[in-house]
Amino acid sequence: MDLKKWTQGPRRFAKGRIVRGAAIVVVAVASGWLGIMLGGPVRANVGPVEIGMSAVPSWAGETVLDAHPFGTLLFDTHNAPVALRVTLENINPARVGVILEDPRLSAQLPAMLERELREGVRTLVLRALLCSLAGGLIGSLIVFRRPGAALAGLLSVVVAIAGTGAAIALTFRPSAVVEPKYTGLLAGAPSLVGDAESIVTKFESYRAQLAKLVNNVSQLYDTVSALPLYDSDPTSIRVLHVSDIHLNPIAWNVIHSLTAQFKIDVIVDTGDLTDHGTGPEDKFTEEIGRFGLPYVFVRGNHDSKTTQKAVAKRKGAVVLDGSVKTVAGLRIYGLGDPRFTPDKSVAVDSDLDSLTALGRAHTAKIAQDPEPVDLVAVHDPTIARGFSGAAPMILAGHSHERSTEILSTGTRLLVQGSTGGAGLRALEHDEPTPVAASVLYFDRKTHRLRAWDDITLGGLGEQSVQIERHVEANPARRISPGPTVAPSPTGSTTGTTTP
Q1: What is this structure's pTM?
Q2: How far is Cα 240 from Cα 233, in angstroms, rounded to an integer?
């Protein structure tokens, strides 16, 4: 007897069973998903609105509210290979009228919405379970044509459902409801494509449409996402953080819209208002006086001392350069960028150690003040990190890319993108730089950040807009003093001189 052939037989048999078992699992799970997608969606009346609900495959695991054609709201509610998609199908005018006319129904509306939404989700879960089980059983039976394989497929679907349910239960985050991300499109917005000549001819039209876009989206976000804590809370101080406008007049339209829609108390601009810091650019600063709000400004590396003086002349402007002032109830310390590099002759990120040391020197200056600082505003994030521990919150710009982090001292650093879409630099890349700004909500009593909305609009030629809510997890966290150095007599770093 050939011993080799005798031993290989069982191996082939075992390997064949593994492959066949894997095939049954794949077919059963795929058929189960197909069953959910075909028979699982349900419709439900939630208050005056008829909605459609469905479970769809998703690696991220999220809840999506599709209010087509206005846009979508996304909630990061769980981590599981399934997403809940809710679609606005219809609005019942008769039911709306009844609710508005009857004060008792209006008072009961929140409880009614919650109850009807729960019933809809419960119906969706039951239908999804039945359809997935039926899909897995029928699919396995059709493909393998054996009762044993069909039962094995049914068992595979049961295990997949149990695993998915456990993942949803373990990773479910109810707090995600207060941190929605809104994304929408405005079909009527003109697209700016082609050369510079076409941009000039369409620029004024684009500015007007972009202002309408911000207004429409803000109103929709205010209505759909239900922001109860920060929308009308009189204890919030609302700060609009803008940066790196770079002579782009679109930024003024955006700021006007945001200050009105979000009822802003103070605007903080972390620099690079201009491109070259020359006298003719001073006229661009005239719009600052038309906001009717305090406009806190710190100089960027593209702003000259001439630019700073021009800003200081505008109504409502508060220029901070190594100084502190209380504005709208917040004590704000600001420092202008020590460099002036519009000709690019000096690398923007040169001499990082000196920039960090400059921030630490001013931190030592702040520490000598008996009254605490609530907010620090600088242009460069490297200088900002030197202020770690000087205040609970630091605002910066410069990088044209938004980011945030909590430093080792407990200080939160928020780096803003470009509110001007990087100006003409937007034309230098394949993808336009987004127009970015943030609305910060500070507690009026504690002066601590409670939440913030990141607002992002598509750059030149783009039509998208996104508003993303973030809630500060621990507003009252302890801020530890950071390392400091002795204040420098001049406070200067390497760079070209101011003209």
Answers
A1: 0.69
A2: 16
